[in-house]
Amino acid sequence: MIDPAQLARIENRFAIANEMWAAEVRALYGGNPYFHRDKPTGRGTPGSPLSAAYEARECAFRDWCAAHVVDVLARTQEDEKLALQLA
User: Using an 8 Å Cβ cutoff, are 39 and 3 in contact?
Assistant: First the structure.
C-alpha cells in the first residue's frame, strides 16, 4: 500500500498541475477548460505555455493513476488474505 503522505503529495501535484493547465486554457479561450481537454486546443502548440502546462498535467495524472492502481492492488491483496482467513 502506498504511503499516505506520498499519496497526498501526488494528489496535490496533480491538483496544482490540473489547475495550471485549466488557467492556461481559460486565458486563451475562456469558458470551461474541460471542453478542450481531449482536443488539440487543450494541448497547445509545441513550446507554448499551454503545451508545457498540458505535459505537466499529463505527467502528474499518470503518477496519480499509478498511485491509485497500486493502492487498489494492495487493498485487493489484503482483501484476498482476509477472505482466505475467513474461508
Answer: no
**How far is Cα 13 from Cα 24, in angstroms, rounded to an integer?**
17
In angstroms, the Cα distances linking 23 to 1, 2, 60 are 33, 30, 16
What residue numbers bound the domain in which 45 lies?
Answer: 4-86
Residue pointed to by grid coordinates 489547475: 19
Beta-carbon contacts of 68 under 8 Å, excluding residues fewer than 6 positions away, are none
As a whole number of angstroms, the distance between CA 38 and CA 53 comes to 14
Task: Report how many domains make up the chain.
Answer: 1
pLDDT tens profile 22-46: 999 999 999 999 999 889 999 999 9
